[in-house]
Amino acid sequence: MRILITGGTGFIGKALVKALEEEHQLTLLTRSAGKAHLIVGNQHKLLGNLGALANLDGFDAVINLAGEPIADKRWSLDVKQKICDSRWDITARLAKLFEASKTPPKVFISGSAIGIYGDHDKQEHLDESFDLAHFKDTGEEEKFPHSVCAKWEELALQCQEITRVCIIRIGLVLGLNGGALKKMLLPFKLGAGGVVGSGKQGMSWIHREDLIAIILFLLNNEQCQGIYNATAPNPVSNREFTNALGTALSRPTLLPMPAPVLNLALGEMSQLLLEGQYVYPERLTQVGFSFHYTHLDDALTNLFGASTS
């Protein structure tokens, strides 16, 4: 296949490129050709701007993973705007390119995140059938992660009448060389890890290898379309995650992080740590996708037993 990938040099994207590069012709959208070559090699075509394309006739598939990291900086108005624009603008431009194509790509896989579901306790089994209209029906305040993802998905789904669209709502991605887990490691290794807030909030996780496998599965299975939760079948609470990570690292987890401290330190962004949801991949299970890492202990054992992960 000839595949256009946005976000191909990120934590997820570079693993995806590695999984695809032997059998497919890849074109990567990137703002820095030099950086891209260092990260993924120089055998791929690079595209500096979607404005260079009149349509997508030359591609068989598009995988859209671009987006400013949501947890790197405190959420000022400027940072929020960059987070939104980095997702919305590229997705909107891709939608227009699909519309302009005479022979459009056969599939469009676009990212999203489980933050779209808002904050829910363990009693709520969240799968793809969950009605997002509840925010309006109940008058519940729309949190920033929900707002970002809702419009992101809306823009991608505009292509449904043109091509097969798959939206992946990604959970906490586990890998050692990027993502949230990398940021957690130092305090835990120093013995300063602990429960965050109440510890009851859900952490719906997925091993990066399984996430890449999901993308490949959706890419190659023509019957798949619509929304898919990219999370392992067994979400855990923050307390369970903390204990499992401490055990995997053979470190104590005795230093809790109270909610008021996080609110003071991070402001609105603290909701990423203090709130959560228990999300289940019902649709992936129904179509026969098989997870390699279904339990957190197995995923962490794999990661900390493989130094090159």
Report a brief summary of the structure.
The chain is α/β, with parallel strands linked by helices.
Distance between the termini: 27 Å
Backbone shape = globular
| Low-confidence runs | none
Q: What is the assembly state of the chains in this entry?
A: single chain
Helix and strand succession?
A: EHEHEEHEHHEEHEEHEEHHHHH
Structural class: alpha/beta
Rg result:
19 Å
Task: Give the integer mean of the pLDDT values.
Answer: 92
Beta-strand portion reads 5-15%
Helix content: 25-40%
List how many beta strands DSSP finds. 11
Number of helices: 12
Reported for the largest beta sheet, the result is: 7 strands, parallel
User: What strand order characterises the main sheet?
Assistant: 3-2-1-4-5-6-10
Write a concise keyword list for the protein shown above.
7-stranded parallel β-sheet; two-stranded parallel ribbon; alpha/beta; 40% helix; 11 strands; 309 residues
Outline the structure in words.
With 309 residues, the protein is an alpha/beta fold. The protein contains twelve helices and eleven strands. The strands form three sheets. It has a seven-stranded parallel beta sheet with strand order 3-2-1-4-5-6-10, sandwiched between helices. A two-stranded parallel ribbon has the order 7-9. A two-stranded antiparallel ribbon has the order 8-11. Helix 1 (11-20) crosses helix 7 (208-220), helix 3 (77-100) runs parallel beside helix 5 and helix 8 runs parallel beside helix 12. The mean pLDDT is 92.
SSE blueprint and pairings:
Blueprint: E1 2-6, H1 11-20, E2 25-29, H2 33-40, E3 45-47, E4 61-64, H3 77-100, E5 107-113, H4 134-138, H5 144-157, E6 164-170, E7 172-174, H6 179-189, E8 202-203, E9 205-207, H7 208-220, E10 226-230, E11 236-237, H8 238-249, H9 259-266, H10 271-274, H11 282-286, H12 296-304
Parallel strand pairs: 1-2, 1-4, 2-3, 4-5, 5-6, 6-10, 7-9
Antiparallel strand pairs: 8-11
